[in-house]
Predict the structure.
Amino acid sequence: MSFSNRELSREGVRGPWARRSGSILSAVIAAVVAVAVVVLGQLDVNERTTRWKEFARDGGYSYAVVGSTAVSQYECDTFRGVAGVRHSGAIRGVEEIRLRIQPDAPAYLVRVTPGLVPAMFPAEPEDALAGVIAGSNLAALGLDAESEVSWTDKTRPETDRDAVVGMIARESGRSPTWDDALVIVEPADREDGTCIVEFDPAASPFAVALAAGWFSANNITLDPILDPPREGIASLELIGARPTTLVPLLGGIVVAILVCAQWWGRRNEFVIYRLLGLRHWRLWRVFVCETLVVVVLPALIATAGATLGTLHGLTHPGAIALGWDLTVMFMMFVLLPVCGLILLGRVRTTDAIRGR
Amino acid sequence: MGPSGAGKSTLLGAIAGISDVSAGTIAIHPPHARIALTTQASTLFMERTTLDNLALGAISRGLTMQAAREVARDLGGEVGLGEVLESRAHQLSGGERQRAMIARSIAAGAQVLLADEPTASLDLASRDIICSALRLAAVHGSVVIVATHDSHVADSADTVLSPWAES
């Protein structure tokens, strides 16, 4: 006869109960680590998500399509119908002009195909973007919707052209040039133009393949509009590369060191089980129960509390990060009984009895 | 019996299976006899009560905590620990700790009780009580082997072996 499994499990509770101060310390540290994992992870993910949204808003997924041969405006403009492409359109031409109402102010005349205008003025509803659009800075010169505007080429003052402004666009957010521009939206034709494509973020990993398939005759490459691409873009692929992925690892190590140090300090107690005939490997049950009581349970409660506290701001990437971080943390905790067995497997009974 | 450093503790450790044996064999009959070892140093759970420490012996032979406590309470009374059963082990005197370890061994149903210097650093009165506890173990069916250089303990033994003295 030897220890029953049930009583051995209970020993895993009696031990921490008998040494309450050490057990409470371990439990508090485990709870703090769990809260840190949840809160720091969420803060990190939310901050990265914000930066990612800013990146996307500023045109981070926009590319200029550069072909070995000319890219037609028509092909470019119709590319927007492809799944994964948010906007696509061509710049037909850019001229520096002098407005009659303010000849000294910098201004541009930009002729674009319909597909490009929503990418230039993302704040405007797409169906409103047609005809002649004035950038937001031109409003300061006295232009407004329905007003007539006239201009000359900067290099040829004798030219004289005019048009009726359809709308004044809100600030572009993409390029200051657009805010100084008089934009004329014209149908695409087979002429070549500067093709600008904005992809859905989710499709960005496949951007090159999508573009290469569409512009198959041109042997194209994609040049990012934002140069260089900004750091810290949180995408689902990069969630595993956050600095806060170290929190569960480091926290787990801190808890492991603390708990193992306590077990080591109590090695003469564990040796008593051996003196009472318990085989060393059966101690796993004691270690498992002690780990559950002193580490896992407090960590679970703290995790539940912290998760409830941050639930209102939990995003989809945040939930994935949280799941990942908690898995790592609890995996670290699950390894604790193994550490305990290995640690005390190295203890000689006679040495432990003598306090060595 | 033997002088300090003669190897008495090593021999007991070898019989108990916790010391390495470099040569020779140890034959125990029956082969899987329950062997308990009490040492000079205390091997008690210091933060637990005397009762719980004694009960652990009974638990180690498969009893539930409740049944083990009843056994422990009886044995505690028999070895003179009735007054300190609810005290924590760290509050016990050296003699009381020795008796607690012996009582735990009895509770564990030890067929062989190895006692290593159980009376070291104890006064005469305490030594008598330890000897009584060891005899109690024998009454409960244990073969009691004591390593000691205390002639007072040796006097209460059925057989005294002093191989070191002969060599």
